[in-house]
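As practice, study what follows.
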Amino acid sequence: MIVVIIVIGIMAAAIVPRLSGSRDREFNLLVEQVADIVLMFSHRSSTSNQPTGMRYDTELHRFELLAKFKEDEGHYWDLDPLAPPIRFPEWLEGNAVEIYIDGELTDTSQWPITVTPGELRPLIEVTLGWESRYALISLASHSIGPNIWLDGNGTDPLVPIDLDAQGRGREEW
């Protein structure tokens, strides 16, 4: 009897830390999935000949990549068939997601972020927060893909510089 209780205690001690860490792993996965949608948005805006869009739908609690389709007499936005939307877990609060365009908080539920090929893309930042966890996914206007800051750790985006303006116009690079 004592052996059975000890075995059950050891098994419970091994399972409890895994249960508490599963939400952390799920948050990390969610950050990667949102970064993938932002990367696809960046790729489509630079290589496609069709407009592309991205939004966070607050009613359905999901992050979506959009494509513009042509119908008989007009165009309409719909989900990109090659990028399924990301459903956010129920434990993540509705205000945990914020999207900034050129530093300004934006509600993309009604009006998604859209980019037309050949036009300059704005700075797009998506923040995700849960308890003490925080993630910033930043897509600079000149960048090929997003930079991810997770809990304060990440890399700074490369920033274009004007060598002539800095007096370094004749330097080799």
